[in-house]
Each structure stands twice: as structure tokens, then as C-alpha cells.
Amino acid sequence: MKHFSLWMFLVAAPIYVTAQDLNSPIPFDPNVKTGKLKNGLTYYIRKNSKPENKVDLRLVVNAGSVLEDDDQQGLAHFMEHMNFNGTKRFPKNKLVDYLQSIGVKFGQHLNAYTSFDETVYFLPIPSDNPEKLEKGFQIIEDWAFNAVLTPEEVDKERGVVLEEYRLGLGASDRMEKRYMPKMLYKSHYADRMPIGKKNILENFKYDVLTRFYKDWYRPDLMAVIVVGDIDVAAMEKKIKDHFESYKNPKKERPRGSFDLPNHAETFVAIETDKEASSSDVQLMYKDKGLPKPNVTLGDFRHYLSEGLFSTMLNNRLEELTHTPTPPYTFGYSYHGRSWVRPKEAYQSYAMTQDSKQLDALKTLVEENLRVKKFGFTQSELDRAKTQFLAQIESQYNDRDKTESENFVYGYQQHFLTKEASPGIAWEYERLQKELPGISLTDVNGLIKEYIRDDSRVVILTGPEKDGLKKPTEQEVLAILNSTGDDLTAYNDAAVISGLLRNEVKPGSVVKKETNAKLGTTTLTLSNGAKVTYKKTDFKNDEILMEAVSHGGSNMYSNDDYKKTQWANGAVYEAGFSGAKINDINKFMTGKLANVNPYVYSISEGLRGSATPKDMEYMFQMAYAYFTDLNYDTDAYTAYKQKQSAFYDNLMSEPNYYFMQEFSAFLNKENPRFNGLVPTKESWDKTDYQLAFNKYKERFANAADFDFYFVGNIDDKKMEEYAAKYIASLPASDKREKIVDTGYRIPKGDFKKVVNKGTEPKSSVRIMYYGETPYSEKEASALSALGEILSIKLVEELRENESGVYGIGAYGSMSKVPYPAYNFNVSFPCGPENAEKLTASALREIQKIVDNGPTATDLSKFKEAELLEYKKNIRENNFWMDNFTQAYNNGANVENILAVEQKVNALTAKDIQEVAKKYLTKDKVIGMLMPEETK
User: Fold this and answer.
1) Where are the domains of the chain?
2) Cα distance between residue 750 and residue 673, in whole Å
3) Which CATH architecture has domain 40-243?
4) What is the pLDDT of residue 18?
5) In the CATH scheme, what is the code of domain 750-929?
6) For the range 479-484, what are the long-range contacts, defined as Cβ-Cβ under 8 Å and sequence gap of 24 or more?
7) What is the Cα–Cα distance from 277 to 694, expressed in whole angstroms?
8) Is the Cα dihedral 860, 866, 871, 875 positive or negative?
9) Which DSSP letter does residue 433 get?
10) Does the CA dihedral 778-782-783-787 come out positive or negative?
């Protein structure tokens, strides 16, 4: 897809644009310093101070798997791995070790990817220290030109890459291998999947990898991107100092382009697998020519027309999901990039019930034909324009609060595909000029460009099981070739006039308190409800809301819980104020506000967000969810059908089956355990009426809720809306407490082995658990233990033993519903290594139990934690999470201000003590192994 920062969302006075205007070039963002060194390396530099004291460095190499020779399949991706395993300045594992020492987490912050067409490296680092900045440039220079591909390190990394290869095995991979020759018909891409071939990964000679590096890692195929809290001139000098001296090979291999040819035929692939976890439909119409990047004003106008088209059609497709018999769980269409860079296509996708693949395909085809025959309506176009404008306006309002990482992708695409990157200010101004002039004729005409009888590909994938009839190619072709003669024009139903149908009788604010430390204001309302809000300048156009109350489904009897567990989503989807979801969505076009209810085990609440301009709509939605929720059996029926499509086959996928069986093992005596997914039996016992009644019971008393708001808040409006929409809610003096249902996982050491799947794949989970008095200090130490152990597990099981691709540990303590601790280690691996690697993980745990963490590892944890905290403390979400967690745990909300002090105070002894106390007893090991073959 094309990627302006606007992407896919969008007043009215006519504007006349001349052909000369449309041929004018789109300007490049003036806030970006760009240039090209004599050796051809391109660079982009932008100063951006959010987050403060941080810079995002990116090395983009215009070379991916499509450039591999026959004996190199998988080595573009292998080369990406090797750049983390030893360079000139950072031999062996020194690179990851150094970055961890300055707070950069491997995999989470430091990362890379390889695709068919490019390889990209991500390096976010602190920018407040000249030495760290210099090291950052040394690293990306070494990635580009100074990898040390020693036989020892190459052989060690084979195991890691093969584990990543193993992760991809399964039903999706097996079906993909069968349909990909049709998707990528007669294309070189079909033979160059980025993960490569197993036999080559296992056996390639060292010089074959070196050949790829020397051929394609060269200045004229590279870009360096620098965005962050930096001095632009200083960064330009660093780029020149680090990259200008390198030369391209004397005999350059041409970086050719590879087409995805068109074809007269319609290709149909109908693939099934016993382990497939969903039924899916894909429909693709490949474009005739090569993609044309957006470089002129005319291109931008066409891009907007395409976005309006997709928006209107997807609105129609979404409406169908809210009908009593939805044809799919979700579906969408768009025109944009296909699997590979040199081809765009008009594409549609749907996920559906097993027996409804043909129905879903028929719906996608018919909705396209409906547009072709009748076009869109003016009211649809007006709403789409309003939607686009609201989205771009919100981005424009936050232009000075945009995270650095959000800029980088646009510059990357400018380098790789020449896609324009004019910046949000230009886009906002130009969009306002262009939108009024885009007519129905402009948008309706696109369908003729998109849909043709040639170069079509249809792919149906789904489960293979007894009693399920597999669609035939003839049935698929019959749907594709239908004329749509029986179709009627789309009826754009009238939009509702408002979100509320009942009169609101305002209450009042009876008390107002402030907390200077937190910067919060708390309003006590006349009905007893409390509103706490924090004004921030982190985002100009964001306000977050959460209302929370103790209680939740733990208040239900065991029987009632099982009858309502799977119906809650249907309760929320029924709409409110007598209006259906489709009506509400139409009314909310251009209004950026949303609210979503929830009922969790120990609490219930509402979670929402809005722009300052649309904040009142958020309050109105909250009021409606409290007072006027619809009861709609059709909505329940539709919800059940969509959920069944999503859940019915999950247990066919080995990892989901393992999670289900492992959870069932831990909860075998738990009378409330009802599985991780609904079965036919649990659906049969589900009672929508009871779920609706329980919801009303949970939201009957607003005085038992605390309402939290964080963002760019106007005090007067907050008081006005709180008095009108919250103080008016029904309330009583009753206060509920968190209920402990009493069940505990059995104590002791257990092991549960689950056999599922035909591929040689295993998964291991080691879990320590139990009750314990809550300690804030121990909670911090246990969390730190998880982070530090993750470092050691990566070093040992990935780097030294080459046995895993990814591994992690996580520790936590909770106060509610009862004080407890939980510590988990999990990793995927080969079945032949599962026992050995489990033993290795337990040895790493024992080392910390016996000796505590090293000073180096403790320092790494602290650096990363403090770096993350400095970023998070400037984000609305972080504050909201703190407010709600403090509420649920009965904790001091001011703890958020003491994080740095607590992190710095943690000692190796603190961490060793929690390891001794909690990781030496009561553990369970879960192990997924493939099915035994006879």
C-alpha cells in the first residue's frame, strides 16, 4: 500500500485544479535534511524531540532475498542475523552486550527484518551522551561494511536461524507452499522466500554468505536515517565521517528488478490442512503495469480517491458484520502493494466460518459489482471525506508531539520506492484543497481499473475435517463470473440524530481537591461518583478515559459465570439508545471518540478515548452504556456466529491446543474453569439474557466507580461534562469489594506433556507460583529478576547453545484477588532439544539462586528500566495504567513518582533473595511435543 502519514482516512467549496498543477511535483518535507554522498549512500536527518534524549538510527539496504543466487536461498536473512554476532569494532556478542549496557533491549528495541526486496536495521539509542552517539554510528557503519563472518560464528548462528525457520512450520506454511506458485506466478520471487531453504541453511559454505555481503552491502544501495533529539549538522558530519570513505565494488553486480507477470488465466487455489486454525478467503486482481510512486499533485489526488474508495467500500463490508447472519467475521478490500514491491493489486480478504467460504467470496464479489453497477452515494462520499479530514486534522494537531519512530518509515519508503514524503503540514493543507474537488465520478470510476477477467487469483484456505465439504474450483469460478444482474443499489440508511434518546438530568460537583505532586484534580460528584483527571501536554489531540469499579465476574455464582462468560461481547455489540452499531458508526463519522465496556474477573469498567473537540461524545457514550444498553437477540446471534468462526478451529493449531491443555491441567479442580475457547457445549449453555442482566447489575451504581481522565483537558469542560453525564448516573451507597473465589493451583512440582502437531516443533513453559504476602520491594525485585534472567537465557540458550530463536522470563506479584507471585520462562525449540534446554534454563535460574545476578547484568536492567521510564512518564497511557492499577491494588498512586528511586535502590542481594524464596519450590513444567508417529 502507499504510505503517506495520512494512510487510509479523510470540505466543501469547489476548487479548480489545472493539468499543470497536477503535474507539479510533491515537495519533500522541509524539516528533513537529505543528501547523497559521492559513493551513492543516501541519508535523511530530522530533529524531533519526542521522546527527549533519544535518537532512532536506521540502516536501509536495498537488497533482500530476491537477489540471492540459487546457492544462497535464505542468506539475505542469515546475513541480517550475523550482523548482531560480530563486527570489526564489536566482535562476537560485544555489540548486544554494549547496547544492553546503555539500556537498549535486544529484540524489543534493537531489531531488524529481511524481506524479498530490502533488509532494514533498527537502532534506537540515547542521544544525550556524545560517546553513545558515536558508538551508535560505529554500529551501523559496521553493519554496513564491517561484519566479521567467522566460520565459528556462522556455524553457531545456523542453529538460531533454523529455529526461526522451525517456528514458521505448520498449517499456514504448508498451505502457502502450495498456493504461492499461483500467487507469484512465473516470478523469481516465488523461489526466493526470505526464510530460505533448510538444506541450504544447514550446509552452505562460508564464502557463499560472504559473496552475498560483498555483492549487495554497498553504499549505492544504502540509506542511513537519523531522527531524534539531535543536532542536524552534527549528524550530517557523523554520516560523512563514518560512510564517505567506502567505495562501491569495481565490478558491481546490477541490482536488477524482478517483475510479477500478469496472466490470462484465473488461478484458484483451495487448500486445506488438519491443523488450520481458520477459514480464509483471499481475492486478488493484479495491476497491469508496474507501481507508480506518488510524486506529483495528480498522484496525490489519485491516492486520495483510492483512499476514499477503500473507506466507503470497507464501511459497507463492516456493516455486513453487524447483520443477523454475517457472511464473515471480518472482511476488507484495498488497492495497493501485493506481496512484492514491483506489483500492486486490488485485494479483498475475509475470515469466515468453515462452511461459508463461498458465501464470503460471493459477498466480496457482489459488493465490488454493486459499486461497478451503481457506484457509491453522495452521502457515503461526504462521510468518507469527513472521516479523512478528521484523521488528518488530528495528526496535524499533534505534529509537534509525534514520536521519532513514526517519521522513519516514510523516509525509508522514499529511498526504496521514491514515494513522496512531504510532511504532515503539506498533506493537511493540500488535502483541504483537493478533497472538495473529488467527485463521485472520480471515485466510482476506479472499480473499472481494479477489476478485470485476467490476472485474478483466488485463494481459499481452511481446516480439513470430516463432514466439511471442500469448495470446488468450478464453484469459485461461477461466483467470479457472475454478472450481478440481480443486485440492487446500496441503500444508505438515514443517520441517527444523536447518541442519547433520554433526557439527561445533570447533577453537580460537590467537592474539588488537587494533588500538586501528581498534577491531578479530583471531583466528588453529587451521586457519590469520583472523577480524577490529569492535564498533560504529551499529546495535543488525545484524552484517555477509564471508569473502574471492584466486583467483576467473581461476583457471579459458578453456574452463572459459565453461562455468561462467552456472551459479554454480544452484550457490548448490541448498541445503545435504541441505535444499532451501524447507526452509531455512521453518526460518529468524523468524530474521534470511542468507549468500550468490560467485565473482568475482579472489576468492571469503561475504557475510551477522544480528541478535546469530541470529548462530549465520549461522555455521552459512557452515559449510554450505563443507562440505555440495547437488548438485541439478533446481535447475539451474529456475535456467536462470528466468534465461532474465530474459535472453532483454534484447537487444531498445536500451540493453542497446548495452552488449552496446560490451562486445563492447572485448573482441573477449578469449578469455574470453562476452557480458553468456547465449545459447542459451552455455547449451548450460554444465556444472553442472563449476561445482559448481569451487565446491568454491574453498571447499576456509578458511585461505586472511579472515573479517570488523562490528556489535554479543559477544566471547565471537564467539570461541566462530569456534572451532566456522570453525576446524573444512577447511584447508591452500596460499595462492593473484590471477591476471592477460593481456587488455587495445587502446590508441588508437576510436569504436563501435551502431544499435538505433525511438525518437529516443541514449546516449553516453566512456571513458579503460589500465595505470599504482598511486598512492594519484592514485587520490584521479582520483575527485575525476570528481565535479568531473560538476558542470561538469551546468552546461554540462544547464543551459546544455538537452541532457541526467542526466549524470555517474566516475574510479578499481585495483591488481588489474593496476594500471590508468578514467574514464567517460555521458549519454542526442537523436540529433540526440549529436555536439554529445559535443564539449561533451570541451571541459569539456579545460578541466580546460588550467586545472585552479576553487577553487569543488574546495571543492564537498571539502564533499560530507567530509559523506558523516562519515555513512559511522558505518555498518557502510562499514567492511566498507573491510576487504574493503583485503584485495583489499593496502592499509593504516587508510587509512579518514585520509580527511579526504587530501581536505583535495588541490589543484587534483593534479587537473589526473591530467587531463593520463590524459584526453589512449587513449579510446573508444560511441554508441547509433536504427535507420536507409528
Assistant:
1) 40-243, 261-399+415-480, 509-654+673-726, 750-929
2) 19
3) 2-Layer Sandwich (3.30)
4) 52
5) 3.30.830.10
6) 479/358, 479/361, 479/362, 479/365, 480/266, 480/365, 480/456, 482/362, 482/365, 482/366, 482/369, 483/369, 484/366, 484/369, 484/370, 484/372, 484/373
7) 32
8) positive
9) H
10) positive
pLDDT of 4 strictly over 90 = no
Distance, CA of 725 to CA of 527 (rounded, Å): 11
Residue in the block written with cell 478467503? 281
Cis preceding linkage at 597, omega within 30: no
Instruction: Give the span between the Cα atoms of 814 and 583, in whole angstroms.
Output: 41
pLDDT in tens, 652-697: 999 999 999 999 999 999 999 999 999 999 999 999 999 999 999 9
CATH number of 509-654+673-726: 3.30.830.10
Write out the DSSP string of 657-719: HHHHHHHHHHTTT-TT---SS--HHHHHH--HHHHHHHHHHHTS-GGG-EEEEEES--HHHHH
DSSP letters, 562-592, are: HHHTTTHHHHHHT-BTTB-HHHHHHHTTT--
Checking DSSP bridges between strand 344-352 and strand 456-463, what pairing results, if any? unpaired
Q: Does domain 261-399+415-480 have CATH number 3.90.1150.10?
A: no
Is 40-243's fold the same as 750-929's? yes
CB 258 within 8 A of CB 342: yes
Q: Using DSSP, state whether 924 is helix, strand or coil.
A: strand
- Whose grid coordinates read 449510554? 624
Amino acid at 883: F
DSSP track, 176-244: HHHHHHHHTTT-GGGG--TT--HHHHHH--HHHHHHHHHHH-SGGGEEEEEEESS-HHHHHHHHHHHHT
DSSP state of 741: -
Q: How many CA atoms lie within 13 A of 841 on its CB side?
A: 28
Angle at CA 801, nearest 5°, toward 107 and 755? 85
- Grouping H, G, I as helix, E, B as strand and the rest as coil, residue 871 is helix
Whole-structure pTM value: 0.95
